[in-house]
Records
---
Amino acid sequence: MPLIALCAGDGIGPEVAAEAVKVLKAVDAKHRIGFEFMEAPVGGGAYDLFGTPLPAESLAKAKKADAVFLGAVGGPKWEKLDYSVRPERGLLGLRSELDLYANIRPAKMFTPLIDASTLKREVVEGIDMVVIRELTGDIYFGKPRGVEKYEGGKRGVNTMVYTTPEIDRIARVAFEIARKRRKKVCSVDKANVLECTELWREVVTEVHKEYQDVELSHMYVDNAAMQMIRNPRQFDVVLTGNIFGDILSDEASMLTGSIGMLPSASLNGKKGMYEPIHGSAPDIAGKGIANPIASILSMAMMLDYTFDQKQAAREIEDAVARVLDKGFRTADIYSPGTAKVGTTEMGNLIIKEMQ
Ligand code: IPM
Ligand code: MG
């Protein structure tokens, strides 16, 4: 039985997760895949109940499952907590414990939403890129780290670390994905200043020798941030490390209109965790107005990458496109002349469109 661990999380997490599960169940009713779900609390809610954002039982479930779905974690309620038990540690713990090193964040323009972008139509029209972000290394996990007493004050330290095998394996993921797309990889680093990313460039260049059918370019991260706004269509696959990928993927998402639209997969082989790239949005939690599309599209990625159900995945994506075409919008992507709907209604419309 294909087994899915459900980590709904905090804020709007449970609301968008409910819609995503509903859609997946509708897919299952048609394709008879036989999904089984088990709830695995993580994040702030888990801390309140169990004193840790990643309870051992939740981690065990995530390890056992074929795929994990995560809504979102965090919120102001937990911001004052010690770093080691913050909701975000739950998410980071899952990523590192499951060794989900390959984070895939597509940013594709949905044509009906073109006017929701803050950039001009002629700049954003036809954007179709994917950020491949290394997810288990870099300054996120490097040691030494922490804040210590120092000369009468304090000193904060984080360390950027990458090893050859870590860079090698993520580079391969990017080249493989590029082969199925427009065959262009832009590797982003800061090799002019940071030795660690000089190594990154060296290893990516080495791996590229095995992928001569793919075009490789290198860009410094500051230039990449600028190029993404200036001419985003030049990008096909963007390959980068954990911290640069965190920043650039938010930037890429905004090009397409709303961060509420974009899904992600964090993979190690077939095993994967799937999450919307947006956060827990505490300001709108509980209001029933959050956009569930990023979560629903994350389920499509799950069908695609973990379960090899390509047709079912396309059916979800097509249904989302048609609902948008018909003019239905959640508040974050609303524009005058379209029909504003809530979270649940958006889920229902997508299911109806699939049938
Ligand atoms: C993301 C988020 C996380 C990250 C946070 C919530 C820890 O911003 O998935 O991009 O920094 O990786
Ligand atoms: Mg981020």
---
Amino acid sequence: MSPSSLPVDPFDLVIFGGTGDLAVRKLLPALFHRFVDGQIPASSRIIGIAREALDDDGYRELLRTSLSGTVDATQLDAFLQQVAYRSLDARKDEGWADFAALIKAQPDHVRVFYLSTSPELFVDICARLGQYELNKGASRVVMEKPIGRDLASANQINDAVGRVFDESQTFRIDHYLGKETVQNLLALRFGNALFEPLWNAGHIDHVQITVAETLGVGHRGAYYDRAGALRDMVQNHMLQLLCMVAMEPPSSLAPDAVRDEKLKVLHSLKTIDDSNAAQLTVRGQYRAGVAEGASVPGYPDELGHGKSNTETFVALKAEIANWRWAGVPFYLRTGKRLPNRVSEIVVAFKPVPHSIFDSAAGPLAQNRLVLRLQPDEGVKLWLTIKHPGPGGLRLRHVPLDMSFAEAFGVQQPDAYERLLLDVVRGNPTLFMRRDEVEAAWRWADPILAAWAASGEAPRPYAAGSWGPSAAVALIERDGRTWNDDSE
Ligand code: NAP
């Protein structure tokens, strides 16, 4: 076992929505990988819950089909022996007493209730967990996004869950925070003397955060059309990334030390509302185009009802009103059907104050620190160096490149692997506290209100392009460009 694989106490992990896409595609594979690494204690149980009438063997077969492939069949069999299934309807009483007895049969186990269902069911599920006293002792609840669609609905969910589970038992998951690169951001900023003295408005020109997907809305249309890119990506994942870049050094990695600092950033975000949303935000919606070499339909056609006012793309300029970041723009951009699948944070430093090189040496470019979250997690620091050889002093802009997979010779674990075990350990550092979710909605709500009040439709963009031209104009107006790592 590697030193990072600390043992965990025996646990029962109950996945509500155990037959759903997230559970089958992400959570169970993550648990299987931890099992293969010897991190799942032998008496631990993983229990899938959904309404579908399956027994334990039926559920195991369903998982076997989705997990098999490159995995060792003997290990898969052994893992599946720790997996069980109960058919329950979150909204009906039937079956809950038996389920409660099953859980109470292991009173010493840590209990994790993972709510991988639509959020409308969170309230019913938690109420029943409370009714059967399954919230007592070392019990934890994990909530998937979206936590509400605005501040009011987020409060409703948090209040209802909070009636059953204490905040210290509540883990609001944002899988971006489990990514290796995000934690490396902490290591880079606070484990090296090099960056922190420069990490402020005096030396940083701007920050860009891009989360680009090549996929369209696919089978998630019903959910997505009610959400849109601002709610689905910006309010949670991208603001969390922004906080990790912008927060003050916490006094330690204690959960509340980190989360207090993130909260201060959220509170310091300048308001975007109907007075400035037209200048600071761009909404887009993809139309038919070519993505990954194939012709694809536009968003309204993919939805099947031909018309929608939901944005599949957002670009915006955020600002943090505090001493460290005054005047430093944070450009955020996310969308579906963009040319590349890439998530990255770019910290662009100010140019040197004076060039000593003559024009024949070539232009001086900004230093940039590029933190890539996907694909190929890693860090690049773009530097100016002299082109090697005797041909005169010519400047080149090249990256110090640290791809984690190459540097450490291993494929990085999926974010869910780390986060699931953090829940079992009871470590909430990488999870969102209630006040963070509320502060993020307090910032997002006026943007949504401004868009609704404007009555403007999202700007169309061709699938396979980088969004509407207005998104390019948003950053170019300030004399800057979106990062293109191909240079
Ligand atoms: P999904 O594929 O639609 O799965 C929903 C699950 O809930 C199914 O197992 C379903 O099974 C179960 N379910 C529905 N009604 C139920 C009820 N009344 N009682 C008990 N179980 C019930 O959804 P998903 O894509 O896995 O997403 C789950 C949650 O995670 C959503 O909140 C989603 O927004 C969030 N999320 C998903 C992803 C992703 O990649 N999929 C990513 C981030 C967040 P039965 O119909 O048999 O009951």
---
Amino acid sequence: MTTINDNYLKLKAGYLFPEIGRRVKAYTDQHPDASVIKLGIGDVTEPLPEACRTAMIAAVNEMGDRSTFKGYGPEQGYLWLREAIAQHDFQARGCNVDASEIFISDGSKCDCGNILDIFGNDNRIAVTDPVYPVYVDTNVMAGHTGEADGTGKYEGITYLPISADNDFAAQIPSQKVDLIYLCSPNNPTGATMSREQLKAWVQYANANGSIILFDAAYEAFITDDSIPHSIYEIEGARDCAIEFRSFSKNAGFTGTRCALTVVPKSLTGKAKDGANVEIWSLWNRRQSTKFNGVSYIVQKAAEAVYSEAGQQQTKALVSFYLENAKIIRDKLTTAGIQVYGGVNAPYVWVKTPDQLTSWDFFDQLLKTCNIVGTPGSGFGAAGEGYFRISAFNSRENVEEAMQRISEKFTAAKV
Ligand code: MLT
């Protein structure tokens, strides 16, 4: 009899977003006329920038001509894209990142999970609570945890609570942790990490031989100049950090698929015999073996993000979603609901009113306003009593959704 990876049996319920989808479907099956507005999963709604579409069309035409046709590309990504990224996203901000340290992929969710292939099974993992569920679930799948307790916390993971009580800033743990997941701007809370906070983590990691997995998928939404966009803006980060980035949210590539991971060549980990091993070589080996790269057409679209027109168009997209976030923040605040985030991030983190649980608030909004958000408790035990509202939607839907919520909560108070 073929056995299975039993670690999968430790996973709690379904992945959060399919679970929400299941509940919404159950509701709409019973109420087929309900006009449901989805502000749950952070999926973009606005069309791809014109510069990207034009580049894709040109690339398709190249693929249709024998003299310019491309077969397999480099597993690491085409050098012209990696050079554009190195220059615009890193060197322009004073970060010492070389094109050879950038690996193009089909998503930072995938990379966050895949990166575990190259790390040992005995590392102590630290995550914030609440947290993007992928960090936890991929560690469970890889067998890095024990079972979950009644609150959904897995044995073997160090959870660092973030809430309004600590201004959504994780405290550096007193015990030693080896792999640390940090996400700024944060999914789900929309909070950002200051330069000082990042510096403290980099110092901790370098002092303890830990590696920080820094998820910067939402960096384009930073509006405050004092907030770092990259962990490599912090001195010493090249020796302790891997950074994940994505074209999903800044350029609307959730359905197009392109992302990148930076692995500095100066980063090392320990082999069982105590030798220091270059992490870059392991990741390069992993990618060359298990991945055949992102399509030429999509990489051409990503390259166009760095053209003058592409920069203007992606900035406009980001501003559009940030304006949605502002509308959400303003309307909810006026309705007497406490909100966080949504200023340097596309997510607004809401304190549930009347001490409702996250799922009770989810059900209430779905049933009375036909609005879908994401229950904070789905991101971890410390997310209980919170609710995430995504700013990724059309202006019309965001305004309509906020109108419905305002009416409900203002009426409830009179
Ligand atoms: C989310 O809603 O948290 C995002 O869609 C996650 C992702 O980008 O995978």
